[in-house]
Amino acid sequence: MAVAGLLAVEYDLFRFASEMTTSERRITLLEGIALTVLLGCCIAAFVHRRMQEQRQATDQRSKIDTEMRELRDQAMRDPLTNLPNRRAVLARLNELLAQTDGRRHAFFMLDLNEFKRVNDGHGHATGDSVLQVVGERFKRVARPTDLLARLGGDEFAVLSFDVDRAGAAAVGTRFLGTLENQVWVQGMGHDVGVSIGVVLIPADGVTAQKIVTNADIAMYRAKATDRSALVFFDSADATPRQYPRFVG
Q1: Which entry of 78, 111, 154, 204 is annotated as an active-site residue?
Q2: Residue 154 designated active-site
Q3: pLDDT tens digit string along 12-26?
């Protein structure tokens, strides 16, 4: 419309129209049809262009949303094992603690035994391969609802939902059992155990930081046994409570 106005002023079309006689101003039926068709084509072209622009904008937004989801997923995953990472665990813990439905859960801190010996004796590439094998073994015994994660280094974590103390002990011993046999990498077997600290939620912590700290305390008590062990956090008991390793 602005362009049409500028053209009318430039070529003095308004004066030209005012000097036309009444008969000259009349248009024939054919001219009217032609003008109507021309106007329809202009409107159709405008609508088509607007729809194209909207589709392009929608496609661009969808592409950006997909890229953002991928970036968020990458930020929540450990690149070596493709397991969720520490950030993902803390986020899920915070979500869980915001719920007040009275359900009970368990958080496990798993630290590999003798892993430093593997790294020092065979190199970090072998150590990385061992971590990948361990991660796969842990995946096989984790329940479908469990959140299994690698926190970093040789530390893993498991968040088990809807379990009491007995259920948590059963879950923990399954993870102990995954490392009863040697971890084989490039034709060489490695004896790697695991020390597991367990925290019951909400009995042993109502914040993510407290839960992780208490699980770490229990894990170091398990570490002090010098063998694979499962220890529940208990602030009133200085003696770690051990459970037999899972066999079978």
Answers
A1: 154
A2: yes
A3: 545 555 655 555 556
